[in-house]
Specification:
This protein has 311 residues and is mainly β. It has 2 helices and 9 strands; from the N terminus they run αβββββββαββ.
Length: 311
């Protein structure tokens, strides 16, 4: 698969504070990763654990747009698949306070959402993902078409959240990605997360070689067309982990269908507020590519999508 032509007129800004998955914060962040990848997410990490990267914390102030496929009311849950078919992905994210020595942000609510293996988002299942893909309704699973592949998790004492999901597919003109918001100050209510404020809105990315290998597998292979590589994406700015590039580890090196573990550290300012309205990234699709604005209609009680955002 080849990438689309890059639109060099697009302004892209780096959006989160990361260190590729290991940050020194009294040893708790490194310990947090160990506990998150254990069989039990609530495993207590040892406070004596140490980091190999030193104590410096990188701070990147600007978030990217939330994109046009956001919906309010995602459920608080670890497993967001709802039976959607795809390569398993265990996602471990650690939230730290970039203004206070990268100390863990206990109680931060991390919200993620992404497309399915064929490029469809729940709530927007009539939006064309580009290329040639089966209709979303043909998949035949039990997923709720307004809630699949969306969810919250609340960070433990080490700032860690863990999701069980599938490797996202792709849609024109975007590379493979996951959307993420970090909220603080709210609380769980009626199965979702209410109140507080959004501190960070961003996107997580996948290495091209891994993504393209995954897309040769079923059910991803049923979606054909021109896939956009990282270098040609309108949001990813080439900054590696500092720009949202996940660290990925195969569950079985010789069989990618067994799944991956992905990790990243997100540095936020708990006192800051981000609306997700588009202060960085997004913009017009590459020349000649279909528009990335959704053609489907969201549920009537959903939030209005950002019209100028790039999903």
């Amino acid at each position: 698969m080849t990438g689309n032509h890059k639109d060099t007129t697009i302004s892209r800004r780096r959006a989160l504070a990361v260190t590729g998955g290991t940050v020194a914060a009294g040893g708790l962040v490194a310990a947090g990763f160990q506990s998150a990848f254990a069989d039990t997410a609530d495993t207590t990490a040892s406070a004596s654990a140490t980091s190999s990267t030193g104590s410096e914390c990188m701070t990147l102030m600007t978030s990217v747009t939330e994109g046009p496929y956001y919906l309010d009311g995602a459920l608080v849950r670890k497993d967001i698949t709802e039976g959607k078919a795809g390569v398993p992905l265990t996602l471990c994210l650690t939230v730290v306070d970039a203004t206070d020595g990268c100390t863990p942000v206990k109680g931060a609510a991390v919200e993620i959402w992404h497309c399915d293996a064929w490029g469809y988002y729940s709530g927007y299942t009539t939006a064309n993902p580009g290329g040639s893909a089966p209709a979303e309704s043909e998949e035949g699973d039990s997923a709720n078409d307004q809630t699949y592949l969306r969810g919250y998790q609340v960070a433990n004492a080490n700032g860690v959240v863990k999701f069980e999901t599938i490797f996202p597919g792709w849609y024109t003109p975007r590379t493979c990605h996951i959307h993420v918001k970090v909220h603080t100050g709210g609380e769980k209510e009626d199965g979702t997360y209410e109140g507080g404020k959004v501190n960070y809105t961003g996107q997580l990315f996948f290495a091209d070689d891994i993504a393209e290998e995954i897309f040769t597998l079923d059910p991803y292979s049923k979606h054909t067309g021109t896939y956009t590589v990282l270098a040609d994406d309108m949001v990813y700015d080439g900054g590696g982990a500092a720009s949202g590039l996940l660290t990925l580890k195969a569950v079985h090196k010789k069989d990618p269908s067994k799944g991956y573990k992905g990790s990243l550290t997100l540095g936020i300012d708990p006192d800051a507020e981000n609306t997700g309205a588009g202060s960085g990234g997004g913009g017009t699709p590459p020349s000649g590519a279909p528009s990335d604005a959704p053609t489907g209609t969201p549920p009537s009680d959903s939030a209005s999508p950002s019209a100028s955002a790039s999903s």
